# Entry
Amino acid sequence: MKIVCIIPSRFASSRFPGKPLADLCGKPMIQHVYERVLQSALVSAAAVATDDDRIFEAVEKFGGKAIMTAGRHRSGTDRIAEAVESLDLEDEDIVVNVQGDQPIFEPSQIDEVTRPLREDPSLPMSTLIYRIVRREEIAHPNCVKVVFDSDFNALYFSRSTIPYVRDDRHPAAHYKHHGIYAYRRSFLRTFTELEEGKLERLESLEQLRALEFGYRIRVVETLHDSVEVDAPEELARVREILLDHAV
# Structure
């Protein structure tokens, strides 16, 4: 069984145009993500999937592999599905999606997110979750929350606060979704053939397409938080973390 990692990367972004090429301690952000992916012993190959010449050239400049994809894709998962068509993969192989705006994710999280698919051949998809410790994230729409059943299968993802705690006498743990997925190669093909889901469109969350059409998403709790760069002002926090770790 092969495990490959594809990093979807777009230049156009309503909140932060050119985000993948933003400078972080002398390197473009996409390079930090790529180099961390390669630190995983499980990954046999990695590539950046993009529809932009500037990102493609930047990746090749630092010695990475880039795959040019169409600009029409509805989501990062759709972009990855096109990219893997050029790779020699079997249906049971695993494709990992690490978002290009997570420059300080832990490479060990690739082991965590792929473990369910390595242990259960019937699972089509898995993703990481993290128990929220910063209270401001519970209500923030950029922090996607998730609820799941007793078998750790996702029930719903939302930008709203879920679960809603009606009675403070019954405190609840809130979990946020990490933008790291693992898919069975065969499921990627299926995913692209599904219509856009109504909930997916409303929440602007691609993973809801899988749930709306009845596919399981196994969630795995990770102990590693990850800072996602959604806006330019978040770069300073990431730079500070990178510099602290370099000391």
